[in-house]
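So, is this right?
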Amino acid sequence: MKQNRTRTAIADAFTGLLAEHTIDKITVRMITDEVGCSRKTFYYYFTDIYDLTKYVCERRISAFLTADNNARENLKAFMAFLNRERAVVLNMFHGYGKEALESFTWQTIESNTRRLITAMPEASGLSEQDADTLIRMYSYMAFGMMVDWFSNDMSGDRSQTLELAIQTLPRLIEGLAKE
């Protein structure tokens, strides 16, 4: 139990530092000073800051992938989360944590897009291949939109664009199912 608390304290301290510093400016010393633990303790749990970054993102992913909300609500919650954590996201994106952030974003989007599309009654008329193609297409679109948003310092509200894409989905599925 203490191990989980220590690991969580390290992750939380790192996330707090990310709100103020780009990831490449954060040192293990800064994290251990924040937690009040030794470097040895840090390295007991994580091989390096990149490993810690992956852990932080995976913790966040699990919250979105196991949420009981429907996929549409999860995607909205994901957008709200990114907006709330804007400084952390941008400091991660503009440093060497970009890969972990992109992986976190992709996994969250792809999982919820799959849930969203397969739950739609219109999708029952699609072949498995068409459904998979549609899931990939919408996942790529949403992921590209997110990376573009991160690249532009998260300016503007992308939730409207995401909502429009979700609203047009049933018509697109109906068109595919008729073919």
User: Anything to note?
Assistant: The radius of gyration is 19 Å. The CA atoms of residues 75 and 81 lie 10 Å apart. The domain at 2-178 is CATH 1.10.357.10 (Tetracycline Repressor; domain 2).
